[in-house]
Amino acid sequence: GRLRFSMNWGLPGPATRDSDLALSLNTWQHVAVSYDRQTVRFFVNGVACGAHALAGTLGQNTEALTLGAD
Fold first, then answer.
1. What integer pLDDT is reported at residue 14 of this predicted model?
2. I want to staple 14 with a disulfide (CB 3.0 to 4.6 A). Which of 8, 19, 39, 53 is the partner?
3. How far is residue 56's CA from residue 69's CA, in Å, rounded to a whole number?
4. Looking at the DSSP assignment, which residues form a beta bridge with residue 11?
């Protein structure tokens, strides 16, 4: 599968972006995602693997942080 960055800031549904690179199965990998209010960037094992425009401001909410969900 691919890395997915998803957030909901009051839009009708979450804003979602996926990485360009599919992850390897049965292999440990270091993954990271950065967001600077303009672009979501994906990294696997320290190598950039996708950058996608996503403009907006993150707000505060009481929703749980979810990592590793289907």
1. 72
2. 8
3. 23
4. none
Does residue 11 surpass a pLDDT of 70? Answer: no
Where does the pLDDT of residue 2 fall: very low under 50, low under 70, confident under 90, or very high at 90 and above? confident
- Return the DSSP state at 8: -
Q: Is the pLDDT of residue 63 over 80?
A: no
Write down the pLDDT at residue 12.
61
68 backbone φψ class: left, alpha, beta (φ>0; ψ -120 to 50): left
Please tell me the distance from the alpha carbon of residue 69 to that of residue 38, in angstroms, as a whole number. Answer: 24
Give the separation between CA 19 and CA 55, rounded to whole angstroms.
17
Diameter of the chain by CA atoms?
A: 36
Of residues 14, 50, 20, the one with CA closest to residue 35: 50
